[in-house]
Amino acid sequence: MLQAVLRCDADRKAVLRLRDDDAERFLTLIHNAIDKQAFPFNDDGQRLRYSAHRLLAKLSENCGILPSILSIAGIENCSKEPVAGGGFADIFRASYRGEDVALKRLRDFQVHQQREIVHRRFCREAILWQDLKHPNVLPFYGIDLQTFLPRLSMVSPWMQHGTILKHITDIGGPLTANLDRYVCFFPNTHPILIHILEQLFEIAKGLHYLHSRNIVHGDLRGTNIFIDDQWHIRLADFGLAGFADATLGTNTSNNAGSIRWMAPELHNPEIFDLKELRRTMESDVYALACVALEIYTGNYPFADILRDGTVILKVMQGERPVRPSSATGRPISDELWCIIELCWQQAPSDRPNMPHVFESLETYQSGCSHPHGISV
């Protein structure tokens, strides 16, 4: 029955009109079909699975309901105050089954309309995130309904090593001294540079995975990239994520996000003959180039410019951040800088796709010497 619905436009539109108990029952039906791999392991089955995931996300967002199967119980020892926060949620530290976890709790907005919009966005993020399974994507454990009743919280592992930016700063120290001279005589062999390249490669692997699932991250930057207990990369924060081929009105179409990581077409879509502001795989690739610069310099793009408005003007004029040296960060090789420059090309169509970026980074990494590693 579900496969027939997924193949019929009229049936899918009828599903999106469901509300309350009917909507929850259908949400559970779709989720179980995806979770139990009820679709054939062929191209048609994968298309049906993708269609089911999109329908699940859109129905959940429309009706503001999450499948009850996503709820978990047993959260303990929650911090009394948030340890971090974002635009629409606060982060608390707690424990779940003996493991430290992070609770991403919705903020309590006073205006009803704003509260409803944020709640629906929360539902969409949860549905997108819960289906992502990859070594370089932060795991989703479930939805906590009890700790902050009636507010909901998304639960994920606690990343004790913090963000990629904190990690890169922590391992810097004296190894960054005289890097220009070192790189001149021993190109691509400095342990810090090797380690940073490995981290960048894992970021690219995570983004490559998202794009292979037709998911756009939408807000890739250093503060949304974490280091797990095994010192591997975990992409996080899918609040602006969406489906790559979403039609008008189904993707995030506001101007939220971080100005300095945003591609030119997100600042002014009309110049690029685009009808709407929509985050795409191409804008993710642009953001990846900015992240590469970020982790080599330890600073955000255009750090020397105070005003975001000035940054927008420069980006629209085709200007990009300068290539770092040891005076402004850690030096970047000619080969890697070429990849970065390709990724932040002005026109979206001129940027390589993630399979190409991934292959280029893999080839470059394999050509570098790999010392035994550094102490972290």
Explain what this protein looks like in three dimensions.
- There is one protein chain.
- The chain has helices at 2-6, 9-15, 20-35, 43-63, 112-130, 164-170, 179-185, 191-212, 264-267, 281-297, 308-316, 334-343, 354-366; strands spanning 71-72, 75-76, 84-85, 89-96, 99-106, 142-144, 153-157, 215-216, 225-227, 233-235, 242-243.
- It is α+β, with helices and mostly antiparallel strands.
- The protein folds into three domains: 1-65, no CATH class; 70-157, Phosphorylase Kinase, domain 1 (2-Layer Sandwich), CATH 3.30.200; 162-369, Transferase(Phosphotransferase), domain 1 (Orthogonal Bundle), CATH 1.10.510.10.
- Strands 1, 2, 3, 4, 5, 6 and 7 form a seven-stranded mixed β-sheet that branches.
- Helix 3 runs antiparallel to helix 4 and helix 10 (281-297) packs antiparallel against helix 12.
- The chain is globular, with a radius of gyration of 22 Å.
- It starts with a helix and ends in a 10-residue tail after the last helix.
Our measurement of the CA-to-CA distance between the termini, rounded to an integer number of angstroms, reads 53 Å
In CATH's first tier, which class of the largest domain applies?
Answer: Mainly Alpha
- Percent of residues in helices comes to 40-55%
The largest pleated sheet is described as: 7 strands, mixed
From N to C, what is the helix and strand string? HHHHEEEEEHEEHHHEEEEHHHHH
The low-pLDDT segments are 248-254, 371-376
How many helical stretches? Answer: 13
Rg calc? 22 Å
Work out the count of structural domains.
3
**From the 3D coordinates, which CATH architecture of the largest domain would you assign?**
Orthogonal Bundle
Report mean pLDDT, rounded to a whole number.
90
- Beta-strand level of the residues, as a percent range? 5-15%
Domain Protein kinase: 77-373
Organism: Piloderma croceum (strain F 1598)
Pfam families: PK_Tyr_Ser-Thr
Keywords: ATP-binding, Kinase, Nucleotide-binding, Transferase
